[in-house]
Write a structure and sequence with these properties.
The chain is of the alpha+beta class. It has 2 helices and 5 strands. The chain has a 5-stranded mixed sheet with strand order 1-3-4-5-2. The protein is globular, with a radius of gyration of 13 Å. The two termini are about 10 Å apart. The mean pLDDT is about 90.
Length: about 90
């Protein structure tokens, strides 16, 4: 039986993608766009949602990685940033 995942996809510049891939960067920082459906979806995420993943796509190569979402940290509304704390990397089956 396959588990269904909720996947939120973002592009990542090669330098940041490689840091994440190598385990040197454990988060993804995004400027919030309230018109973007990805941020509306992420606003519904809650701790314990084990089947939510972030897909990071390398803008130069198209390679991608999946990570479980460990936590979301929303900045003050005036600042407009979302920090996505990355959990375990998930391999495709």
């Amino acid at each position: 039986m396959r588990i269904k995942f909720k996947v939120i996809e973002f592009k990542s510049y090669p330098y940041h993608w490689e840091l994440t891939r190598d385990g040197k960067k454990k988060f993804d920082l995004r400027l919030i766009d309230n018109n973007d459906p990805r941020f509306r979806a992420l606003s519904r995420w809650q701790p314990g949602y084990e089947n939510w993943l972030i897909k990071l796509v390398n803008t130069a190569t198209g390679e991608y990685l999946y990570y479980k979402i460990d936590d979301l940290r929303w900045s003050q509304p005036a600042e407009g940033w979302l920090i996505i704390m990355l959990g375990k990397q998930i391999k495709e089956e």
